[in-house]
User: Fold this.
Amino acid sequence: MHSTDIAHARTPEPATGDRRRWFALAIVMTAAFMDLVDVTIVNIAVPSIQRDEGATFSQIQWITAGYALAFAAGLVTGGRLGDIHGRKRVFLVGIGGFTVASALCGLAVNPEMLVASRILQGAMAALMVPQVLSIVHATFPAHERGKVFGLFGAIVGLGAVSGPLLGALLTEGNLFGLEWRPIFLINLPVGVAALVLGSRFITESKAPRALKLDLPGVALVTLALLMLLYPLTRGRELGWPVWGYASMAGALVVFAALVAYERAKGARDGSPLIELSLFRVKSFAAGIAVQTVFGVGLGVFFLVWTLYMQIGLGWSALRAGLTGVPFSVAVSVAAGMSVQQLVPRFGRKVLQAGALVMAAGVLIYLAEAERYGLGITSWQMALPLVVMGAGMGLIVAPLTDAVLSEVPREHAGSASGLINTVQQMGHALGLGLVSVVFFGVIDERLAPAEVGPAFVDGFTHALGWVAAVLGAIFLLMFALPKRPAQHVEGAADAEEAPAAGEKEPELVP
Assistant:
């Protein structure tokens, strides 16, 4: 789930009352749903795109990683633009641009145009998504937000369920002979409807003190990620040239320059892209590490899983999509339970249990893939997928809450944007690592009869890496607070009142 820009401040009730408020919620949730579906829907169509467009494996990685990279690089700036120019206005620009980019993806004439359009789509999502929970905070009082976050957990599950299925049905259906293209074109009517209704029902809001944009910071973040990801995705294809290693080492230098620049900018005008003081909060620093590593694990798993089922096992997109339903249902159910029932009672232990349960599911899957080989069936995958989905659901919904719980209120918006950014960076890094942990153990030239066994071996190798990542996440979670502050008695009341010297957000009618 994408955690989004959250501004913890008291907000007056909208003048038009409950009905308008719930309409606004439905519209912003639709936008969040579009973004979630767009990630999963593309994964299931990847083999079809590769076959129809003749895309290389590195282009396939960039169709997914390009979106994640643009999304990660633009998230904090997107949140900042909403604070300065109005969350409603920036949300509408984002959803309009996302719709246009979806049309360009659907009309792409070659893999290069598709990659470029996906990068644009990610950039537009970076304008749209950070406004979602900011709008919720400007629309709902604190005592109602628990219910709203529970709904978001359900939306995550629904997006996870419907994305692969919708992608499979649209790809297999070959509507109007368009092959995979309807997976993008379906965003057009949804985007237009959200644009029209959003302009009518969403209340405008801005930050009480508009911070400045930090474009050099954005440039440094993007450059560092590109220097790291490009050699990872192309390295195997090009024979791991020396410049690739030099570029990855140079990325660390650029990251160091970013930290130095952000520290100086914070001292100069108080509006850095990254609020470095946040990393002195132990739970936040640990949470950022958890989000990054979790993103890496998910990035590796979902792309490799799709390639394994459709290319390795030779399954249709529809069969692959249906096979994933038990996973998606388990995520949805566990996400709802974790936020509303389990975390208020057991706190951090729920997230740690989620990491262990998900790792157990991965290891069961690994054992079954090795045991059954090419003869594995969908129902034999159901058990490990349900276990993995339950573990993931226990983590995704409450994690943002746990990470933010000890962050000073005045930095809550910056912290939320950073959480989302590093998760997407991790996801993009995981997609880049597919070259190493999956394709790295597969020979480049395979006879048709060798493809299946090679992909099964690559899949089990990648699952070992994912299990190790989840073990690392479990250990990192010990640094999270035992119980998020929002669940401590009286926290909701504390959130209702502004902190000393803090202004209420300006509402623009």
User: Anything to note?
Assistant: The beta strands are 204-206, 506-508.
